Amino acid sequence: MPPVKLFQFRHSPFCEKARLLLSAKGIPYAVQEVTPGVGQVDLLRRSGQRQVPVLQDGDVLVAGSVAIARHLDSKVPEPLLLPEDPRERARALLWENWADTALAHGARMALLQAVSQDNHLRKALLPQATPGLLRDVLGALPGDVVLGVSQLFTRAGLQQLQHTLEQLATLVDKGAPLLGAQHCVADVAVAAQLYGLKFPAAAGAELAGRGVAGIADHPLFEPLFAWRDQLYGAVGRGDHVPAPSPDPSDHG
Ligand SMILES: N[C@@H](CCC(=O)N[C@@H](CS)C(=O)NCC(=O)O)C(=O)O
């Protein structure tokens, strides 16, 4: 069992960011799936906060994807996730912050909207511990019953996100890094937030290629998802899906 363990929600983009960071460093790790709600109480006890991702590295617990990137750079210096040059580092941090906030918000809202309209997505995204019958029942419910109408994305919100993705699609160049000569935290942060817009192979066969209608299937965004898939190849994430260990809080 590797000494590094990631506490995660399997389909959280911030956990995907942590998995990409670990892959980029070539660090073997185990994952532990956290049950939303009850499992987060245990996480709060361990780490002082309730969000995932949390990385356990021996006796050290690191909460949050930004702190995880710094921890991994201090543990394994090559390749550096945060560039050494101060100006390049500043650019990388600004990209990361933008991806973790504005892009993350737009992508999350668009996925919620898609999930409310797509039974297959809804069932596939339920926590893995959800029993089969409950998954079927939830998958069959109308979307606004499951999510609440207030959570739905406005048309203007979707258009704003599409506009942003159009700029990104123009900016990326095949699998090339966004900044400098090698991939850094900027690339990983952006790629991670694209996770639910069009699921990569690493999300598993049930989800791969699916996502938000009007984005996942729109030719305008193909270069962006191709860039993302090439980044996955470059950091060695490919379609590797580590097997989660069960959440011990499920068993008292
Ligand atoms: N700033 C954090 C954000 C992490 C985050 O938003 N995690 C979400 C899952 S995507 C979470 O744990 N949500 C549960 C909660 O807030 O209770 C990071 O960079 O890791």
What's a concise summary of this model?
It contains 10 helices and 5 strands. With 252 residues, the protein is an alpha/beta fold.
Structural account:
A 5-stranded mixed sheet has the order 4-3-1-2-5, with helices on both faces. Helices cover 50% and strands 8% of the residues. It folds into 2 domains: 4-82 and 240-251, Glutaredoxin (3-Layer(aba) Sandwich); 86-235, Up-down Bundle (Glutathione S-transferase Yfyf (Class Pi), Chain A, domain 2), CATH 1.20.1050. Helix 1 (13-25) runs parallel beside helix 3 (65-75) and helix 8 crosses helix 10 (222-235). The mean pLDDT is 89. The protein is an alpha/beta fold and 252 residues long. It has helices at 13-25, 38-47, 65-75, 86-117, 119-125, 132-140, 143-147, 155-171, 185-193, 222-235; strands at residues 4-8, 30-33, 54-57, 60-63, 244-245. Glutathione binds next to helix 1 and helix 3. Glutathione binds at residues 9, 12-14, 40, 50-53, 64-66, 100.
Give the CA-CA distance, first to last residue: 23 Å
Strand order of the largest sheet: 4-3-1-2-5
The CATH topology of the largest domain, please?
Answer: Glutathione S-transferase Yfyf (Class Pi), Chain A, domain 2
The best one-word shape is: globular
| Percentage of residues in DSSP E strands | 5-15%
The number of helical runs is 10
Main β sheet profile: 5 strands, mixed
* Domain unit count: 2
Instruction: Give the proportion of residues in helices.
Output: 40-55%
What's the CATH class label of the largest domain? Mainly Alpha
Helix/strand-derived category reads alpha/beta
Write the element-wise H/E pattern from the N-terminal end onward: EHEHEEHHHHHHHHE
